[in-house]
Amino acid sequence: MRVDGRQLDELRPVRIETDFIKHPEGSVLITIGDTKVICTASIEDRVPPFLRNQGKGWITAEYSMLPRATEQRNIRESSKGKVTGRTMEIQRLIGRALRSIVDLEKIGERTIWIDCDVIQADGGTRTASITGAFVALVLAVKKCMASGKIDKFPIKDYLAAVSVGIDQKLGEILDLNYIEDSSADVDMNVIMTGSGQFVELQGTGEEATFSRDQLNQLLELAQKGINELFIEQRAAIGEFADKIKVLPKKEL
Amino acid sequence: MRVDGRQLDELRPVRIETDFIKHPEGSVLITIGDTKVICTASIEDRVPPFLRNQGKGWITAEYSMLPRATEQRNIRESSKGKVTGRTMEIQRLIGRALRSIVDLEKIGERTIWIDCDVIQADGGTRTASITGAFVALVLAVKKCMASGKIDKFPIKDYLAAVSVGIDQKLGEILDLNYIEDSSADVDMNVIMTGSGQFVELQGTGEEATFSRDQLNQLLELAQKGINELFIEQRAAIGEFADKIKVLPKKEL
Amino acid sequence: MRVDGRQLDELRPVRIETDFIKHPEGSVLITIGDTKVICTASIEDRVPPFLRNQGKGWITAEYSMLPRATEQRNIRESSKGKVTGRTMEIQRLIGRALRSIVDLEKIGERTIWIDCDVIQADGGTRTASITGAFVALVLAVKKCMASGKIDKFPIKDYLAAVSVGIDQKLGEILDLNYIEDSSADVDMNVIMTGSGQFVELQGTGEEATFSRDQLNQLLELAQKGINELFIEQRAAIGEFADKIKVLPKKEL
Amino acid sequence: MRVDGRQLDELRPVRIETDFIKHPEGSVLITIGDTKVICTASIEDRVPPFLRNQGKGWITAEYSMLPRATEQRNIRESSKGKVTGRTMEIQRLIGRALRSIVDLEKIGERTIWIDCDVIQADGGTRTASITGAFVALVLAVKKCMASGKIDKFPIKDYLAAVSVGIDQKLGEILDLNYIEDSSADVDMNVIMTGSGQFVELQGTGEEATFSRDQLNQLLELAQKGINELFIEQRAAIGEFADKIKVLPKKEL
Amino acid sequence: MRVDGRQLDELRPVRIETDFIKHPEGSVLITIGDTKVICTASIEDRVPPFLRNQGKGWITAEYSMLPRATEQRNIRESSKGKVTGRTMEIQRLIGRALRSIVDLEKIGERTIWIDCDVIQADGGTRTASITGAFVALVLAVKKCMASGKIDKFPIKDYLAAVSVGIDQKLGEILDLNYIEDSSADVDMNVIMTGSGQFVELQGTGEEATFSRDQLNQLLELAQKGINELFIEQRAAIGEFADKIKVLPKKEL
Amino acid sequence: MRVDGRQLDELRPVRIETDFIKHPEGSVLITIGDTKVICTASIEDRVPPFLRNQGKGWITAEYSMLPRATEQRNIRESSKGKVTGRTMEIQRLIGRALRSIVDLEKIGERTIWIDCDVIQADGGTRTASITGAFVALVLAVKKCMASGKIDKFPIKDYLAAVSVGIDQKLGEILDLNYIEDSSADVDMNVIMTGSGQFVELQGTGEEATFSRDQLNQLLELAQKGINELFIEQRAAIGEFADKIKVLPKKEL
């Protein structure tokens, strides 16, 4: 039995609250179990220097945790004067993942800033960030299309992420909470599109390893979880849900 | 008429939601108009070096804004690698104010970390932070007393803060929102105790000045607003409300 | 009796030495008791980015202490790699105060850098900095007018600052030295114009509070001290003294 | 045909030169095609604070490039004053991978510092670093066993890493050089043990995605390449080669 | 003729004002022409970690310029967040030079902090700093001997520094001011003891070179200048002048 | 007898390997005894801001050590977030020295970046860096002349550097290794041109001093060593050796 009574292949309860913050072009509060992340998408009318005058846009992400999002208070990165390696890895991952399903030429010479701020953490903050950021991004695009800033719909596919892992006793499990994550032998983050393609796969055995068979079982679990996340995303996006590439029937 | 239809001496709607975040010893989401701040109080069982072995505790505060709490996205201070002067001023102010109404000897050799994270900003974030942080602090103390960590009630008085200012056309006004704050000639933050004493007074004429008479009128407005905030704080604190020094009748 | 034998409402001896340093457009060494600050005003022929092409200038200030200005040697902020919160607060205060009495359009698209370097500290360094910086500023303006850089006199009023405080035994006192400042219950910095208006008021009760009556008595003391500082400033400025808005008789 | 004439499943020439630098306990120069990395292993007789008094050791890695290891000169991270996100990701990966095949209790309360300094880069620097660092680590352990510092052999298995990717025209390819890496749709780094287990799997589609079938083909290629790297490592390690867990015949 | 009318081998007017600042154990204001440096010596009752428990002390120096010590305002190093290479070179030089004439065992496990703050610069700030710091150091030692902190006189010899250089038209010149320094082909700083030994010699041809003969002439000039500085130092030190190793007659 | 059996005036074995790294315009691995430095010269087609539009180029240098170039592992400067004073001194020295023998107008508005990365250290790393960097610079110039980027040969003279020092027992010695350097009373770095002129002279007595006679003997030793380094440089440069100002016979 899992620590919180879930089935091995069961997601925690998911809730995506849209327009949680008034200023950003797109914003959501995504809640997955006890993990809560505010995801916002902000439009800036210019691109970083390396992209200037190429007629295409950019998507970049930043990730942070409130100091007391966790059981023990963390020192703020602004107080330390630098961003940790973990934060950098996560924000690079979020940006890369979102860029994979956006036609950057259709957003024009603009930067979309994705901010993922974890206000309460209980495992899976990076996958929740990606899943929520996708919705915030779509909402921001919607606003830009309404105002005429963007005229061709640039979102190529759905995108969601989930963690899977191997517990020493229970075997492969879906959507690890903090306690499960701390004791898991193997931890894998899977990011997939609505059409069932992988965008990113990061599997790590910290002081442990995993076999090809185990990998296959983890990927099955991940696909199941991600399909359920797509349903939540569609509900949150509303009338725009069908503008995004319809998912092949076999997937849902 | 004020930009949002309020009377000159009218506060924006105030709401204090307790236990907003699960991990901290005390936490609230304080909403004042469109300004929303998560305030948490965390207990650490040691004091900074300069206080060691003196048998007393410490209260310190940190303040931050999410990048998109504001109309324009702000660069994160962690990305800049340093905290701005404005942030430093505010967090020093919050810490100082809370220390003034706590008997630091009664909390023992502990540090109470106050974190104020603005998730949506519309003026008055520092005064909302102080007003909310007071409640988070009381909740944390309550928890420590329940667990026996602290045995004597250390809160000496209520504490709340409000902004007042002088508008070129309207004259003295209470609780400025962002638009009012941007155009005000004079901006003053007033922090008071439940017994009607000043803890801190910061009045600034940016490219303007103010007379002794105007100061007196600003202080009257501030007292009115703060008395109303005390009522909200008492409601949020619940059964502990009367453990804190009863306010002299003339004040409420 | 005060620790240095002064009356409760007595300033320490004040001396303003002009042209103390040869390179800056304006410079003074201001001595108030044992507090000594070198204040310089430097003209730069451009404004910060946020002000470009608006036809007006800017005044900004920096403040620092020599490491051994104090009883204990302080670590240099350049060695720490960052400026402390206290320094930031003070330099923001100095800049804001000076901007309040200058017509920024009359100085054109220029920045006036005010540098206040404390070479010996005995309390009241921020108020001495403001009082001295005002004179350095006027001297720099004088030079710019002589060279034709500035053609309309931009100084709108006198400006000086003083500290007042409440001593547990003596009550309200004027111009606190370091020992008095360390033990005072309440510390207030008051910045006023020659016409008796407040520019900034910062009163703080560190682990203490103050009443409305005490506030009023502090303000009386401050007005007295500031009037005396104006006399020193006028003497230092020389022939330019009368170009600045004549002070209403009742004030002097 | 590949840009350098290789077969799709062909590694570039590999050379592992041991004892390249005289001071470190273990050091190699690993050359894979035109990629050259100096890998050293240094023993420090203490562990980081979070591990003290637990009777086990730690392995941590740092990674850097000489400024002109690349076609365009890179700004040194020491000049920038901070380490980039890419560097942090890589050094965290190297450390994690090596820890997975070492029995940390057998090295005692010591830290093994792995330094990977790329002196010439042509793609695959992180996988070359891991493959070379494994050898440097074994050499350092050898020295510690000779001197009696470590008495039980702590290496649990072989460890090597390789990159695989998907080229738009050629399909799946092994061991990408810089040109191939720049134009690949999908890039995957695979780290495996001598017993055929995965230690880490990082597959990324930058503005592209990949299917389950493609993943399987990439993993086949990676296994082939890694088996060849094990042969080079065994040769470099010399008499110690057989002290490490014998590889099951089916793998080689 | 030199730009300020001096002879080729003539020092600028030198003045050493002792006890310029009240808090430090030793302090001077040294004025050499238009160069003015506040030098202080502070005693700290502990040594840096690398010297602990060795029964000897340490001398370290810091150097800084006020932003407007120069013709153009310099950005403060505290604002930049780092110390420039030039500053580091100078402060390392000052510390090294002073350590050469002090018996570090006689000062016990103490650090003497030398702070040299240039308040007005006109060339030769590093040599003026050394010459002035020597006097501040002796004054601090005097105070420590009076209070019994130090019981054996630790100063082994006099120490002073001067710059010499080669002007394209005038040839070798002594004690360059800023204009001379800017146009000189060769610049050399010479630090010597009272007994005529070299402590440090730093000669640089920026986009120029110098011959052995020129070197010899520069060293003659330097010796002459330094002998004159010793006379000023002796006067400043007062009754302690003769406690320091008497200078051989031929030198003065 | 010297610790490694050399004569007092004997250089360690010198080897200059050209084109050690493939990407840079010029690169060498210089080995002097056990000191090994990779020196590269990179051409950038622009100059720093202070030189723009003046029709001349710039040469700047950076210096670093691999963490385990030394007996004890050093913390990387990128991890510390800042460059040490020692590194800054050395890189300023290298840049200055190379600029002295290059006609900067002949290289046009270009920056030549010199990178000296010590991969193994045994004393004399800064002098080896200069000696090697000179060759890398000539190789880069050669490439630029071949491609037509530079049309007039800009190298005015040879340049090499060596250390000399005074050992308490042996007296003056040439080319100190690490052990000798650590125990020497006096350490001097001498940089000379092929025509026998000094470019830079830095002699330091750390807690010691030296006389005029000793200085003269040190300079004789340095000249001997540098003449031998010129022979190695000529061999490394090949056909270009005679394009550089022929050395007067008396020198070799």
Automatic annotation (TrEMBL), chains A, B, C, D, E, F:
Keyword Transferase: yes
SUPFAM superfamilies found in the cross-reference section: Ribonuclease PH domain 2-like, Ribosomal protein S5 domain 2-like
PANTHER family associated with the record: EXOSOME COMPLEX COMPONENT (PTHR11953), EXOSOME COMPLEX COMPONENT RRP41 (PTHR11953:SF0)
UniProt-annotated binding residues for phosphate: 86, 124-126
EC number(s) per entry: 2.7.7.56
InterPro entries assigned: ExoRNase_PH_dom1, ExoRNase_PH_dom2, ExoRNase_PH_dom2_sf, PNPase/RNase_PH_dom_sf, Ribosomal_Su5_D2-typ_SF, RNase_PH, RNase_PH_bac-type, RNase_PH_CS
Single GO MF annotation: tRNA binding
Protein name, per record: Ribonuclease PH
HAMAP family recorded: RNase_PH (MF_00564)
Subunit (UniProt): Homohexameric ring arranged as a trimer of dimers.
Protein keywords: Nucleotidyltransferase, RNA-binding, rRNA processing, Transferase, tRNA processing, tRNA-binding
Gene Ontology BP terms: rRNA 3'-end processing; rRNA catabolic process; tRNA processing
Family statement: Belongs to the RNase PH family.
Free-text function comment from the UniProt entry: Phosphorolytic 3'-5' exoribonuclease that plays an important role in tRNA 3'-end maturation. Removes nucleotide residues following the 3'-CCA terminus of tRNAs; can also add nucleotides to the ends of RNA molecules by using nucleoside diphosphates as substrates, but this may not be physiologically important. Probably plays a role in initiation of 16S rRNA degradation (leading to ribosome degradation) during starvation.
Domain Exoribonuclease phosphorolytic positions: 10-140, 157-225
Catalytic activity: tRNA(n+1) + phosphate = tRNA(n) + a ribonucleoside 5'-diphosphate
